[in-house]
Amino acid sequence: PFAFPPAEHAKDLLAALQAPGLASLLAKASLQQHHDSAPFNPALPHECWLSQDEENSPPVAHLLMQKLGLRAQEGHWFVMQPANLHIARDHLVLTDCRDLQLTESESRELFALAKPLLTESGLTLEYGHPNLWFLRADQWQTLRTCTPDVVCGHNIDVWLPRGEGEREWRKIQNELQMLWHTSAINEKREAEGKPRINTVWLWGGASHMQTATAGCAILVDSLLQQNL
Question: Which pTM does this prediction carry?
């Protein structure tokens, strides 16, 4: 993932490339043609391959909750990550969630502001980690979402959740953005040169009835290594 060089540098880099491990791996690979008819890709290629699902983001929420020591609960849960939207000239871009430098106290305060809004909407919000919250929305089981990594650096319009519940989610997301806009936490972060926490990203929906695959377990372990 993320190993491709910029196109303008690729020719020179390939000429000097010394990668025996990659060469060995490619020698064992087979070429397959993939026809993608989806309006958007819900995850990066390796995420789709590991989850064995090309229609939705990997269903990792329940397994991730368990790994973080949260009590196993019934229902359909999503990973809900505090995030930063960069305002470009005519669109919004999701920045890398790993670069937020979000502290425990900051995350707890933002969580406390967000929870009443979600509760009022009939949803349950649980705290797992400064960068990893969880939202129960049983009525959104068919909602299609995308992983933060496939969206990172792109116009979010193409990658916003689609399907049952998308309008309700966008309304909640907009209200949350307005709620956090004047937060003292964001004023302090901006003064310190840190990105504002001005949105959340929803993905990883999973039902308690789903059995976590070995591939999803690998994705969860990788996510925890990046955040813990």
Answer: 0.84
Say if CB 207 and CB 75 are below 8 A apart.
yes
Count the residues in the chain. 228
Q: How far apart, in Å, do the first and last CA atoms of the chain sit?
A: 20
Eight-class DSSP state of 54: S
Q: What is the pLDDT of residue 76?
A: 95
Amino acid code (one letter) for 164? E
Q: Is the dihedral of CA 115, 209, 142, 93 positive or negative?
A: positive
| CA distance to 53, 91, 162, 223, per residue, from 86 (Å) | 29, 9, 22, 23
Contact 77, 65 (CB under 8 A): yes
Question: CB under 8 Å, gap of 24 or more: what pairs does 138-144 form?
Answer: 138/75, 138/76, 139/164, 139/165, 140/76, 140/78, 140/164, 140/165, 140/168, 140/169, 140/205, 141/76, 141/205, 141/207, 143/169, 143/205, 144/42, 144/55, 144/56, 144/57
For residue 83, give every residue at least 6 positions away whose Cβ sits within 8 Å of its Cβ, in sequence order, or none.
Answer: 94, 95, 97, 100, 148, 197, 198, 199, 200, 201
Burial 89-106 (b: 16+ CB within 10 A, else e): eeeeebbebeebebeeeb
Question: Is residue 37 over pLDDT 60?
Answer: no
Contact 219, 206 (CB under 8 A): no
Average pLDDT, the chain: 88
